[in-house]
Write a structure and sequence with these properties.
- This protein has two domains: 45 residues; 209 residues, Orthogonal Bundle (MetI-like fold).
- It is mostly helical and 314 residues long.
- The longest helix has 32 residues.
- It is built from 15 helices and no strands.
- Helix 1 runs antiparallel to helix 15.
């Protein structure tokens, strides 16, 4: 009996089409928000630059121009005191020479002392709250928290009276004094980091004969460098931009020897020759005062980012 072999038909190969990539709407939305935030940040900065390199006459004649109509450095010359009184009046400025280099120096001195000395006291107080045992520690720490949430204006009058009684009014020392011993936020910020450090590291050092001060200086502080850098940046920005206390304690701008940049810019805003503020000069002074902040973030910004990812045991 003959057998017939069944022949199976060859299956047709289906063409393979590349899959269409799905649109990631979440990523698109995130990029749109970032670009919008970038524009919100850059546009005011560019407007400041554009006004600083223009003349007052050009600004009033072409208020919507995106670029300086006639590029000039006259505003910077007025701010730095390099222009004569006649030149200042001709350029639309107030007929008075300013000494922004002196104000810059005063601000640098105040800020540097407040940051470095305050950082020492902040770190020592934070370590005491994190590691030492003493009566009333928790109550005292909560007082720090209360001080953190209180408006700074509530301390203005008591600090003013204290500085006046000490004879430090209208001096740089009087401006520095309230921030000399640190602040509640710095203590709270650094305490949280010190609590995350593994105690075994400190206990091992104590077993080797190290005292508490040696442990703090040689072990804890090096491990806390990223957080200390972050705290120094925050303190630097806060001290550099301080206006209210510097205005009252420094003689309200009447004494150049104690005038800082923020107070000088406020007086610069109030000086008007013909009813119109010297906008180019104000913007030039603002750019000059922002230089230290830009430099600080350029060199210390990475440390601030690293502190977010800190680990107590390295």
């Amino acid at each position: 009996m003959a057998t017939t072999a069944s022949i199976t038909p060859l299956s047709k190969t289906q063409p393979v089409y590349p899959r269409r990539r799905k649109i990631n709407w979440g990523r698109i939305l995130a990029w749109a928000v970032l670009i919008l935030w970038l524009l919100i940040t850059i546009v005011p900065l560019w407007w400041i630059v554009r006004m600083a390199f223009s003349t007052l006459k050009d600004l009033l004649a072409n208020p919507a121009s995106l670029l300086p109509v006639n590029f000039t450095l006259d505003a910077f010359k007025r701010v730095l005191g390099l222009a004569s009184v006649n030149e200042i009046v001709a350029q639309g400025g107030f007929p008075q020479k300013l000494n922004f280099l002196l104000y810059f120096r005063n601000t640098f001195i105040v800020t540097t002392v407040v940051v470095f000395v305050g950082l020492v006291f902040n770190s020592m107080a934070a370590y005491a709250f994190a590691r030492l045992k003493f009566p009333g520690k928790n109550w005292l720490f909560w007082l720090y928290i209360v001080a953190l949430i209180m408006p700074t204006i509530l301390n203005l009058i008591p600090n003013f009276i204290l500085i006046h009684e000490l004879g430090l009014l209208n001096t740089l020392a009087g401006i520095i004094a309230p921030g000399f011993f640190g602040n509640a936020f710095g203590v709270f910020f650094l305490r949280q980091f010190f609590l995350s450090i593994n105690k075994e590291v400190e206990e091992a050092a104590k077993m080797d004969g190290a005292g508490i001060l040696r442990v703090f200086v040689s072990i804890v502080v090096p491990m806390a460098l990223p957080s200390l850098m972050t705290m120094s940046i925050l303190s630097y920005v806060n001290a550099w931009n301080e206006f209210q206390w510097a205005y009252f304690a420094g003689g309200q701008g009447a004494k150049e020897a104690t005038t800082v940049m923020t107070v000088a810019l406020a007086h610069f805003r109030a000086q008007q020759q013909s009813g119109t503020p010297d906008f180019p000069g104000m913007m030039a002074g603002t750019l000059i005062s922002a230089i230290p902040m830009v430099v600080a973030f350029m060199f210390l910004g990475r440390k601030a980012i690293d502190s977010i990812k800190f680990s107590g045991y390295r």
